[in-house]
Amino acid sequence: MSLSFDHVAIAARSLSEGADWLRARLGLDLQPGGRHPGLGTHNMLLSLGPGEYLELIAPDPDSPDRPRWFGLDGFDGPPCVAGWVARADPLTAPPGTDIATATRGDLSWRITLPRAGQMPRDGAQPMLIDWGTGPHPSDRLPDHGMRLARLTLPLDRLDLSDRRLMLTGAGTPLTLTLTRDGTQVTL
């Protein structure tokens, strides 16, 4: 299976709280994303360049209860890096996950979802996604020059050759470092 970085997720109690938190750190406004029907969440997005983006995700107060992904059930505290998603070819479901199909407008994707809503290895192990042959969300986001510089993962091993992904071993925090115009911000 071939893997490549697709997006990173920042969890928040609400989209407005998360958007304010990110704006204070990045100096940029996120773009509206949408709802995840049946998953109990909604999102906002920020381009990290071609084929990559940052997703702010929060519980959708208008959705029925169900185990929410990215560990959002009972989430409390300031926004934080909750996990990341890798494009997988071919897409297969790791143990404890199922493949779900979703659409929004002309976007269509298949994604592995943890059955209990908790992210694999507390967000260090990626969820997997396949956008098929259609468009990618980053295709329609304004590019403000923000880029992924580093994502530190508390893992000992991962079959991915992206040098921006740093394996730091168990017991270390999951952190995200972004860069824009020579300035780095770590979340």
Overview of this protein structure:
With 187 residues, the chain is mostly beta strands. It has one helix and twelve strands; from the N terminus they run βαβββββββββββ. The chain has one helix spanning 15-26, and strands at residues 2-11, 31-36, 41-47, 53-59, 80-89, 97-104, 107-114, 127-130, 147-153, 165-167, 175-180, 183-186. It has an eight-stranded mixed sheet. Strands 10-9-11-12 form a four-stranded mixed sheet, with no helix packed on it. The longest helix is centred in the first third of the chain and has 12 residues, at 15-26. The protein is globular, with a radius of gyration of 15 Å. The model has no long low-confidence stretch (mean pLDDT 89).
Beta strand %: 35-45%
How helical, in percent, are the residues? under 10%
The run of helices and strands is EHEEEEEEEEEEE
Give me the count of strands: 12
| Weakly predicted, low-confidence segments | none
Terminal CA distance = 30 Å
Question: What's the gyration radius in Å?
Answer: 15 Å
- The chain-level mean pLDDT equals 89
Which of globular, elongated, flat, extended, rod-shaped describes the shape? globular
**Order of neighbouring strands in the sheet with most strands:** 2-3-4-1-5-8-7-6
- Helix-and-strand structural type: mainly beta
Count of helical stretches: 1
Specify the biggest β-sheet: 8 strands, mixed
